Amino acid sequence: MEKVVKSESEWRVQLSPEEFRVLRQAGTEPAYTGEYVDTKTEGVYSCRACGAELFRSGTKFESHCGWPSFFEPSESDAVVLIEDHSLGMSRVEVRCARCDSHLGHVFHGEGYATPTDDRYCINSVSLRLVPADS
């Protein structure tokens, strides 16, 4: 996979202010406000910054956490996981492997009835859904 490397000023031109805040500054959109929280459309979720395929709709599930949740990425190398000890918490950050944009966090062992017991809690603003019928 060819990496996408841009300066912060190039990202600012490409992304909206909210997209930049979340994708490039590791922000979080407010719970239950993202466009994909309740989406059931079949398709592929790609990185809003670089277009890399990240998740497929078949792995999306209802977690009732306020953000779109997936139990695994479309390919194991589509995302990079980084230990995150910010805000006094111990979490694992999820980043796009192609452009290093912040996507959200992954949590394990919460008891969801999914094949992996992982919850990739992803900001809608970090994603772009490409419907299967398009």
From TrEMBL:
EC number: 1.8.4.12
The UniProt record lists the keyword Oxidoreductase: yes
Record GO terms (molecular function): peptide-methionine (R)-S-oxide reductase activity
MsrB domain mapped to chain residues: 8-132
Reactions mediated catalytically: L-methionyl-[protein] + [thioredoxin]-disulfide + H2O = L-methionyl-(R)-S-oxide-[protein] + [thioredoxin]-dithiol
InterPro entries assigned: Met_Sox_Rdtase_MsrB (IPR028427), Met_Sox_Rdtase_MsrB_dom (IPR002579), Mss4-like_sf (IPR011057)
Record flagged with keyword Oxidoreductase: yes
Keywords assigned by UniProt, alphabetized: Oxidoreductase
One Pfam family per UniProt: SelR
Record-given protein name: peptide-methionine (R)-S-oxide reductase
Origin organism lineage: Bacteria, Bacillati, Actinomycetota, Actinomycetes, Streptosporangiales
